[in-house]
Structure formats: structure tokens, C-alpha cells
UniProtKB/TrEMBL annotation:
Belongs to the NhaD Na(+)/H(+) (TC 2.A.62) antiporter family. The gene is nhaD. The lineage of its organism: Bacteria, Pseudomonadati, Pseudomonadota, Gammaproteobacteria, Vibrionales. Residues 50-425 form the Citrate transporter-like domain. It comes from Vibrio thalassae. The chain crosses the membrane at residues 38-55, 67-82, 102-118, 139-157, 163-181, 188-211, 223-242, 263-280, 286-303, 350-371, 383-406, 418-445, 457-475. This is Na(+)/H(+) antiporter NhaD. One of its GO terms (biological process) is sodium ion transport.
Length: 480
């Protein structure tokens, strides 16, 4: 064995007792560091990083930065200690496993985000927003309309994108009415999270459960009614506090860009392809999503090649009809670049997810998730454990909580896997910092939708959370 350098010896000195403890208490290729300096150091690093994540709104520090740094530090500690024990292959294998988990989800989410960005660029969301503003609805009608649309759009477009779209509508019509903007944003967050709970495309947590193979695409449907209840219960109560007065809003015409509806069709085809890869061939769904990216690339190629002909055709029609407005609208026939859409993906979210996966994977290798799993899913009733997962999701964010559950891989019935999917998805609505939708809206409606403004309605949201769990236990008891 090579002689260690002085700095390495100094660094490993606090961990020597750990190595001895581990080698005495566990098998040759598994080590337990939960009550050692190594484990405590990793926990402190992760705790500090996640504290910074939860303070994102106040620090104006993107949430990916602290978890990326924490992931690197945790794996440096793991690597040095496992190398000292002569078991570096164990750490390498765990690292590669976590990287593979992340790679599958990264590519899947990247394609989905690219399609959503493409629809946004073709002005589909602007057109929907313009339609709602131009209809002259009163505040209470807009409260229900934005909530219901959030619930039904989020299963396809994901809860974060949906929440931002509806928030833009609320800000446009709400204006200086801070009370309406705050309560409408709370309603949107609850609706978007509830709508995303019964679809693999609605939230990262449901996507993780689907990709892990615990629940198939069609098996999410029993969560539909509990998700509806989760949204309806608080929405009915909150709507009583929304006035029926008419907002002052200016309607503006939105011209859709060429190919807008065809991109929606391609996205639906991409979803069907991903489901088919998983259900028929038993391949990871990401294979179908990457194939769907090719659909979008070829369509972008078609739009560019036919651009001159399309411009000439519309120009001829406009001149023949002496329509100057149509001539000005020719900017709607702009070329389409799919790689520019890729660059507009939510990279902060994707990198944050990498940091979470690697941090939780490191803590799992150190033995912490085994301890938590033993307590929650062996000593407790799994139903109560899954209820607690939802409450933790409101405090810590549902992504690391769900990834931790999947890493523990407890023996659960289909009913309990659906329950933890439901609670992790909708539990984040209890606090504004509990979900990506809530955090994003605090930024988009800064000063109008706040942590404490959301906190005031937490008892009402908790009522919906409890009602949805009771509904699932009653309606789907045959799955437990």
C-alpha cells in the first residue's frame, strides 16, 4: 500500500475511528457511517445546502448552486474514506448508479421542457392568456377559471409551467389588487400540484415513480378523484373570500406563429411514444422522449425549408386583399430552431435535481436512508409513513423526499405507492416553499404572493390534503 501524503493523513485523521467502527459492525462491502464523523459531516453539509435552498427567495441565490457544491463535498468525503478502506469500487458503483438515475430523468425532462418552450415560442400560452383576459370575467370567475385550467393543463405541461402561465394571467387582470393576486396564486399552486399528482408528466415526483417501475402509466388514474378533492376543498372555501367585482383589463390580439398546433400534436405523439417504449418494450420511457425530440427537430427543419414559400403566399393574399395589418403580422411566420428551445429549458431546476440525486445517493451509501426506512416503513404503519412524506415535502421540497423514498425502496403495496405519490405531490402545497410551482410564483408575483400570505391559508389547504388521503384510502382500499 502506498504511503499517504501528509495532507491526506491529516484529512482522514478524524475518520480513522469511523473506518474501524464500520469494518467491525457490517459486512465486507457494506459500511454504516450513520453515527460517525463522516456521516455527521455529510449531514451538516447537506443541511446547510438545503437551508440555503429554502432561503432562495430572500438570498436571491439560485437553488442549484448550494446543492451542486454539497454533492461534490459529500462525494469527496465518501471517496477518500472508501479509498482508505480499500473499497473504492463500492463507492464507484454507487456513484455510477446515481448518475444513471439522473441521466434518464435529465434527458426525459429536457425533452419535455423543450416542447413546452417551443409552444411558448409559438405563442400558444400568450393566446390562451389573451383569451381569458379579453372575456371580461369577474374576479371570482377568474379565480375558478385559472384554478381549473391549472388542474387540467399541469398533467401534460407540468405544474411549474402551468403555474407560471396562470400567474401571468392573474397579474395582468389583478393589477394592484394584492388580496386577489395572493389568493389566486395560492389557488393556482394547489391546483397545479393536485393536477400533476395523477400523471407521470405532471410532476417530477410522479415521473420518478413511473420511471422506477412501481406504478405503470394507466395505474395512476385511481389518484384522479383524490386529486380533484385535494383541489376542490380549499378552492371552495377560498372562493368565498374572492369578490365578484370586475377587473380593469386591456385585451390585446395575439397572432399564433406557424406550426403552433402541430407542435402540440407532436408533443402528444411524443408522450404516446414514451408510454409505448415503457409498456410494450419495457425500455426506459426516456427512449421514447428522445425519439420525440427527433419529431420536433424534423418539424423545425420543415418550417425553415418552407419559410420563403409561406411568406410569399401570405404576402400575396395580404396584397390582394389590401390588408396592411396582415402584412405587419408576417412576423408570425418566423423560422424555428429546436436547439434554441433546448437552451431555454429550466437549467437551474435540472442542475438542482442533479445535486439532490447525488446528495441523497451519498447519504444512502453512508447508511442514513436504511435507518430512516427501518423506522418509517417497518416500525410505523406505511400509511402514516406516507402521510409524513407529504408533510416533509412541504418543508424540504418533494423532489429530495421522493428520491429518498425510492432509494430506500420499501416493500409497499400498489395502494401505498399511489399514496406516497399523492402525498409527495400535493403535500408541497401546504407551504409556498414546498413545491417548484410555489417557489416560482413567489418570484413571478414578488411582493404580492408571499410565504406568509400562503401560510395564512395553510389550515384550509391541510383540510384538502387530509380529505384527499381519506378519499384514496376509501376508494382504492382494494389496492392496499
Amino acid at each position: 500500500m502506498m504511503k499517504k501524503s501528509r495532507w491526506q493523513t491529516l484529512f482522514l485523521l478524524p475518520f480513522i475511528a469511523t473506518s474501524t467502527f464500520a469494518s467491525e459492525t457490517v459486512s465486507a462491502d457494506t459500511f454504516n457511517f450513520t453515527q460517525t464523523t463522516v456521516g455527521y459531516a455529510a449531514l451538516v453539509i447537506f443541511g446547510i445546502a438545503y437551508t440555503l435552498v429554502m432561503m432562495e427567495e430572500y438570498l436571491q441565490l439560485r437553488k442549484s448552486k448550494p446543492v451542486l457544491l454539497a454533492a461534490g463535498l459529500i462525494w469527496i468525503i465518501i471517496g477518500l474514506v472508501y479509498k482508505d478502506l480499500g473499497q473504492i469500487e463500492v463507492a464507484q458503483s454507487a456513484l455510477e448508479h446515481n448518475l444513471l438515475e439522473y441521466a434518464e430523468l435529465l434527458l426525459f425532462l429536457l425533452v419535455a421542457m423543450t416542447y413546452i418552450s417551443a409552444m411558448e415560442e409559438r405563442r400558444l400560452f400568450d393566446a390562451l392568456q389573451s383569451w381569458m383576459v379579453g372575456k371580461g370575467f369577474n374576479f371570482r370567475t377568474l379565480f375558478w377559471l385559472t384554478g381549473i385550467l391549472s388542474f387540467f393543463i399541469s398533467p401534460i405541461a407540468d405544474n411549474l409551467t402551468t403555474a407560471l402561465l396562470m400567474c401571468a394571467v392573474v397579474l395582468k387582470v389583478g393589477g394592484s389588487n394584492l388580496r386577489f393576486v395572493n389568493i389566486a396564486c395560492i389557488n393556482i399552486v394547489v391546483a397545479a400540484n393536485a393536477g400533476g399528482a395523477f400523471s407521470p408528466f405532471g410532476d417530477i415526483t410522479t415521473l420518478m415513480v413511473w420511471q422506477a417501475g412501481h406504478v405503470s402509466f394507466s395505474e395512476f388514474m385511481p389518484l384522479f378523484v383524490p386529486s380533484v378533492i385535494n383541489y376542490i376543498v380549499p378552492a371552495v372555501i377560498m372562493s368565498l373570500f374572492v369578490p365578484k367585482t370586475q377587473p380593469d383589463a386591456v385585451h390585446a390580439h395575439v397572432e399564433l406563429k406557424r406550426g403552433a398546433f402541430r407542435i402540440v400534436g407532436l408533443f402528444i405523439l411524443t408522450i404516446a411514444t414514451a408510454v409505448a417504449f415503457h409498456a410494450v418494450l419495457h425500455f426506459p420511457p426516456v427512449m421514447g422522449m428522445m425519439m420525440g425530440l427527433a419529431y420536433l427537430q424534423f418539424f423545425g427543419f420543415f418550417l425553415r425549408k418552407t419559410l420563403p414559400r409561406s411568406i410569399a403566399k401570405k404576402k400575396a393574399i395580404a396584397i390582394a386583399n389590401n390588408d396592411e395589418t396582415a402584412l405587419k403580422r408576417l412576423g408570425s411566420i418566423v423560422p424555428f430552431d429546436v436547439f434554441r428551445r433546448v437552451s431555454h429549458a429550466e437549467w437551474d431546476t435540472l442542475l438542482f435535481f442533479y445535486g439532490v440525486v447525488m446528495c441523497v445517493g451519498g447519504l444512502s451509501l453512508l447508511g442514513y436512508l436504511s435507518v430512516v426506512s427501518e423506522i418509517m416503513y417497518t416500525q410505523w404503519d406505511p400509511v402514516w409513513a406516507n402521510v409524513m412524506v407529504g408533510i416533509l415535502s412541504a418543508i424540504v421540497d418533494n423532489i429530495p423526499v421522493m428520491f429518498a423514498v425510492l432509494t430506500m425502496n420499501p416493500e409497499l403495496s400498489m395502494g401505498n405507492w399511489l399514496l406516497v405519490t399523492l402525498t409527495a405531490g400535493v403535500g408541497g402545497s401546504l407551504l409556498s416553499i414546498g413545491s417548484a410551482a410555489g417557489v416560482a410564483l413567489m418570484g413571478a408575483a414578488h411582493g404580492k404572493y408571499t410565504f406568509f400570505g400562503h401560510l395564512k391559508w395553510m389550515p384550509v389547504i391541510a383540510l384538502g390534503y387530509a380529505a384527499s388521503i381519506v378519499a384514496h384510502l376509501a376508494m382504492n382500499q382494494g389496492l392496499f
